[in-house]
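User: Hey, quick favor. My workstation is busy. Could you predict this chain's structure for me?
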Amino acid sequence: MKRYLRIAAILLAGLCAGRPAHPQSSDITLGISETAARRIPLALPDFAPASSSQTRKAAEDITKTLRDDLSFSGYFNVVKPALYSDIAGYSEKKVLYKQWLDIGAESVVLGKVLEEPGKIAVEGRLYDNRQQQLVMGRRYRGEPETARSIAHRLGDEIVKQFTGQPGFFQTRIAFVSQVGRGKEIFVMDYDGERIKRLTNNGSLNLNPSWSPDGKEIAFLSYRSGRPELVILSSGGELRKAFPQQKGQLNLAPEWSPDGKRIAFSGSRDGNAEIFVLRVSDGQLTRLTTNPALDTSPSWSPTAREIAFVSDRSGSPQIYIMDAEGTNVRRLTYEGNWNDLPAWSPKGDKIAYCSRLEGHFDLFVRDLATQKSSRLTQGPANSEDPRWAPDGHHLVFASDRSGNYDIYEMISDGTGVRRITQGGRSFNPDWSR
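Assistant: No problem, here it is.
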């Protein structure tokens, strides 16, 4: 019982750190220096504004946001804007393809912001400089304050032109941050902008999980003094709550891919087991029955399997079982503490954290090869990995700045950037 309470307390704090150190064996490929596929050199000069101040501000916001989006996507190298001055008089009416190629840009995005009554109109065009042709053109209308959102929409379309899949720039991230003595649920744009607080009860609110349609968030809350599984709308309105009996503890809820069920780790007899809750009526189904501790469930994208953590082998390791609780098999063998699995949207990989040399780093397990690649390395802790919907990026929590904050990176360990400031933020989850 004491051992269960110790692990539960760690999970409630949202931390892997603080656990006692153990020797760590290693049979793992270092992935930090691995490079992604070749990035496409792309020029993105400033969007041209109309004469009004609101279109100038919108053009600045769109240009900056779009450059940041495309750079972080991992698919593009945005050619340095300082080189654009060598190209005179560029516009969509006369695209200087050869001159763009001369500065190394295989593609170029040209855009402008027009003014309409009470609104702005944004036009963006993508050109292939080698083929000397227009690839894509889009026009958006909206309030001036929607400039960043319009940039994200355009960025998604540009990514789709090159990859066949839309970008993730309109997605959001839910996370936990400490406010006074409480821990509250927040949401923000994928790049850390437009942070909004969803809970304000001064209690413990932990482990937010997005529904597949991005309209609801499930999480654990002590708002009533007892642990509840709570569902809020993405705007913060209460949808449902599932109170638990005294002495019961629920952790790490995660929605099924069809949005009808929530898997979680719960105690009903003093031991942590994996349960599934049917959202429509609260019916519970117990999946594991084992004297060991079973925690941190993660659905496969087909909903046919669930990854979870168990110490049934003597130390926390990652296991996979069928969604009915049968056919349990062990996934990880390297290391003495592997935790917090997250199944990739494509179903081919599982991200997790593993303790090395007294701290936690992030790894990705390729399910086809059964090889793990290390993504982070250093004296700080990195944990709580969650995938972006494109399966090419991860969000995670780390205390590398001294306190915990939310970070993002490409799934090969490159492009790491911090998206919250001030510390004590953890438990991120990326909307679909």
